[in-house]
Specification:
The protein is an alpha/beta fold and about 325 residues long. Helices cover about 40% and strands about 15% of the residues.
Length: about 325
């Protein structure tokens, strides 16, 4: 049985013996070797497969802590602004805790898979006539009234939970890799990884990959024009690398076809950054943040079309084009 993240790292998290843990079995996600990509890039590449978390993204690491502490404080409602993954995670953990979740999302800007998750978990999903940044500002103002707890990554307990990915990676490898690579939307994961490294006293290069056009990128999960943690990220010893949508999509499709792993486009931003300047011979861990089924429309736009055939072996062999 999977040990809940808070229980596994209780001595490194701000909880007490009486803290009521809200868990869906998050954490302990696989660290997968990527042999074919490693060969192409001339390095040793590992993939931290965060889609194995309960709601299909890394957000669950922080959400178990944020909701646990909200419940401990007596909260009965949560609020978040989201481009999708935070909303799905908040809705799931609110349902688990038996409390209300209010989700504010930019109008028409959230992938169908993530929207479906939020709705089926019973969250009150509201589309905001504006950007993610405007939705986040509204969520912050609502939280200031004391009726709802904000569970975006501005909540410090989110950062506490997300830093545990670093603990797991270092534990499994036996030491810190030479390089960590993460996508950069709001910057919460970059801050979390830096905190995890600092607490371990470990040293590694931290690369944070952002979209060239933050307002309109195809990678909807990192479509954030004004990153909430931008100031903190700028103060970290982290390298911010900018990648185009074309580079993100190439890395995304390559991961699916070369290694058999289907992630959402934003998850491939780190791989796109890595391909620009591969650190030859280094041990690199790239965090894959969310599952591809969260954004099926993106795959449908570039994947080969299906072919209609008769139920006949010759017709099938001809259409398949060989073994």
């Amino acid at each position: 049985m999977t040990v809940p993240l808070v229980e596994r790292f209780r001595d490194r998290l701000p909880v007490s013996p009486s803290t009521p843990v809200v868990s869906l079995g998050e954490g302990s996600t696989p660290l997968l070797p990527a042999p074919r990509l490693s060969e192409r890039l001339g390095l040793e590449l590992w993939l931290k497969w965060e889609p194995a978390n309960p709601s299909g993204s890394y957000k669950d690491r922080g959400m178990t802590m944020a909701v646990t502490k909200a419940v401990e404080s007596g909260a009965v409602a949560l609020v978040c602004a989201s481009t999708g993954n935070t909303a799905a995670s908040a809705a799931a953990y609110a349902a688990r805790a038996g409390i209300t979740a209010v989700v504010l999302q930019p109008e028409g800007a959230v992938a169908a898979g993530k929207l479906a998750q939020s709705r089926i978990h019973g969250a009150r999903v509201l589309e905001v006539r504006g950007s993610f940044d405007e939705a986040l500002e509204a969520a912050k103002l609502l939280a200031e009234r004391g009726t709802h707890v904000l569970v975006n990554s501005l909540n410090p307990y989110r950062i506490e939970g997300q830093k545990t990915a670093v603990f797991e990676i270092v534990e499994e490898l036996g030491e810190a890799p030479d390089v960590f690579v993460v996508p950069y939307g709001g910057g919460g994961n970059t801050v979390s990884y830096a905190k995890g490294l600092s607490e371990l006293g470990a040293h590694a290069r931290l690369v944070s990959a952002q979209a060239a056009d933050r307002r309109h990128t195809v990678a909807t999960a990192i479509r954030i024009a004004d990153p909430a943690h931008a100031r903190v990220v700028a103060q970290l010893d982290a390298q911010v690398v900018t990648v185009s949508d074309e580079q993100i999509l190439a890395a995304w499709e390559g991961l699916a076809r070369i290694e058999g792993l289907f992630c959402e486009p934003s998850s491939a931003a780190g791989l796109a950054a890595l391909a620009l300047d591969p650190p030859r011979g280094a041990c690199v861990v790239a965090t894959i943040t969310g599952h591809g089924l969260k954004d099926p429309e993106a795959a449908s736009r570039i994947a080969p079309e299906t072919v209609l055939v008769d139920p006949d072996p010759d017709a099938i062999a001809d259409a398949a084009g060989g073994p």
